[in-house]
Amino acid sequence: MASDVIRSFIAVPIPNNIKSTLAAAFEETFGDIQHLRSVRPRGMHITLKFLGDLKKDLADRIGASLGAIVWNRRPFTVQAVGIGGFPNLLNPRVLFTPLIGETQSLIDLAADLEKALAEFGIAPENKPFEPHLTLARVKTPKQLGLIRKRLKALKGVSFGEFRVEELILFRSDLRPEGAHYTPLARARLGVKK
Fold first, then answer.
1. How far is CA 125 from the centre of its chain?
2. What H or E segment, with its residue span, contains residue 17?
3. Are strands 94-101 and 84-86 parallel, antiparallel or unpaired?
4. Helix 103-118 crosses helix 56-70 at what angle (to 10 degrees)?
5. Is the backbone of residue 101 left (phi > 0), alpha (psi -120 to 50) or beta?
6. Which is nearest to 159 in space by CA: 72, 41, 60, 48?
7. Buried b (16+ CB within 10 A) or exposed e, 24-47
8. How far apart are CA 50 and CA 96, in angstroms?
9. 100 and 81 in contact (C-beta within 8 Å)?
10. What's the CA gap between 189 and 193, in Å, rounded?
């Protein structure tokens, strides 16, 4: 990849205590299943928009615009509860924890972001935003029966509540040991710059 192009996305950061709680519960429940590739705790976040490969100057302009997108939005609270599977629980390819609480505020924030990014030529998503935290990807369907059974054990379990207070534009560098995320720009909800 050319040095003036970066792989990037916009996300809501997750507090460390929530990451630790999720990682511990996930490891306890699914740690012996070899056909899952789990997200490292430091990589957990709520992705609002994957931007893909962007020229650095475009990423810089998007980062500079984040404050204008979120200054009129107040912080809000969500809670991570249970574990589900995309596209469904019968044949999950991704395991995630759903978010509950003020999720409409999160959906509205994602919609504001989509509108603002369209002005930069970024295509909108072709599916609705679903508030969630990705926990793992299913590498092969070999142990799906066991995965489905264990998902039931975590139904309704709360992993904690947290405030959504900022957005971060991240650079994503793919490495053999996993993706490494570097914050490029931050914008706090309700703060006018």
1. 15
2. helix 16-30
3. antiparallel
4. 130
5. left
6. 41
7. ebbeebbeebebbebbebebbbbe
8. 17
9. yes
10. 11
Contact by Cβ (8 Å): 155, 100: no
3-state helix, strand, coil in the chain (%, to 5): 30, 35, 30
Tokens of 177: 């040991």
Q: Is the pLDDT of residue 1 over 50?
A: no
Place of tokens 């509540």: 161
- Structural domains for the chain: 5-188 (3.90.1140.10)
Do 80 and 33 contact (CB within 8 A), yes or no?
A: no
Token pair of 166 as six digits: 């900022």
Share of residues in the chain with pLDDT > 70 (%): 98
Token pair listed for 27? 């490891």
Cα–Cα distances (Å) from 149 to 51, 108, 157, 161, 189, in that order, read: 35, 34, 15, 26, 39
**Residue 143 has what pLDDT?**
85
Alpha helix positions (H), 71-143: 103-118
Sole residue written with tokens 């490292």: 40
